[in-house]
Structures are given as C-alpha cells and as structure tokens.
Amino acid sequence: MTITWDEYFMGLAHLSALRSKDPNTQVGACIIDQDKKVVSIGYNGMPRGCNDQDFPWARDGGFLETKYAFVVHAELNAILNSPRPVNGCTLYVSLFPCNECAKAIIQSGIKKIIYESDKYDGTEGNIASKKMLDEAGVEYVQLPYEVKVTLNTDK
After folding, report:
1. What residues are labeled active site?
2. Which neighbouring-strand residues pair with 31?
C-alpha cells in the first residue's frame, strides 16, 4: 500500500510534533514547495537557547505563568527554520493556524494550508485567522481524515 502525498506530508508534521515538550498540545508543521519537496518542518516549542525546563507549560494562570508568553508555534518555527523563502509553498499542519501564525503565513507568501484539526473553530482568534487568510487569498483545506504516526520504541 502506498500512502498519498497528503498522508506523507501530514505524517512528517506529526512526526515533527513528537519533538514538542508541550504536555497538552503537540503540533507539527511541514512546508513543501510546488515540486513536492520538503522545504522545512517545525513543532511548537521554546525559542532556540531557551531551556524547556526553565519555562512554564501551564495553560492556566497569569500570563507569565503560562506557555502562551513563550512558545513558538509549529507554523512559525517551520517558516523561521526554512533555509530558503517559502513563497508559493504549501503548509501541512496538524492544527488550524492561530491568528498570529496566520499573519506569518501570509507575510511569508505561503499559498495553501492543509490541516487536520480545527478544534478552535468559531473562537475569536480562529475567526480572525480565517478572515485574514481569506482576504489574502490563502487557500485552506481540512483533511477529511486523521493521519496517524506510530513509532515502535521497543528496543
């Protein structure tokens, strides 16, 4: 059995997400070009040089006591880690981009988003994200199924 391109690239996004130390939400992203070549990958985590153990991963509490002040999202990590411009590329991501990531996606020139989960659909951030992506002409498509990545860690 051969997997589809969508399954392959979303699988790479999921594999990347496994690097995330976030105990609640592991998100991965994979950027590909028009020739179906991987340009970059990313996952949600602390900025380079910031030790994961020295920063909070909590979702509740004061702003500086939660992850929200510090974590770089998978989409932004993939854009920032890219060795070349991502203009015209497609982004595969396991969770629909937030409004902050939507800004970076638009500014970087990514033209299409393939995503799985839209668990924040209808929230203000999600509405803002979709409004900006629509206005900028960035296409987004939800996969009709979930891609599973399984690792055999038996040694």
Report:
1. 75
2. 40, 91
